[in-house]
Design a protein that fits this description.
Elements (H helix, E strand, L loop, with lengths): L1 E3 L2 E2 L2 E8 L9 E6 L14 E10 L8 H6 L20 E4 L9 E3 L3
Parallel strand pairs: 1-7
Antiparallel strand pairs: 1-2, 3-4, 3-5, 5-6
């Protein structure tokens, strides 16, 4: 589960990259939908330490009619997740060979 100030990230992405100095050769990621993400075991990350990058919005998808969408451009959706969790992320996790490897993230705008 990925939340921001207690609310699930509605639409976003999570990415895992080997942490500095780690000999891990895999990276991975997944979409976030309604606060949930999943990386299937077969596509999973090798054991090791990873730096985590999260982006996302907390607003619902565009609910306008097709006619409205065709005649008016959609407002730009701003990333609700602060930079400290994405381009300047210091979030890390460790994937272990024996698991469980479920990682939840409780983020804050503060």
């Amino acid at each position: 589960m990925v939340t921001l100030d207690g609310a699930p990230i509605v639409d976003g992405a999570i990415r895992f990259e080997p942490a500095n100095g780690e000999a891990v050769r895999t990276a991975g990621g997944a979409p976030i939908s309604a606060g949930l993400y999943e990386i299937p075991v077969k596509q999973g990350l090798a054991p090791g330490k990873y730096r985590v990058f999260i982006t996302g919005t907390q607003s619902a998808a565009d609910q306008r009619s097709v006619d409205e969408q065709m005649n008016q451009p959609a407002p730009l959706r701003k990333d609700a997740v602060p930079a400290k969790y994405n381009e300047k992320s210091s979030l890390t996790i460790e994937v272990t060979p024996t698991g469980p490897n479920q990682h939840d993230f409780t983020l804050s705008k503060k």
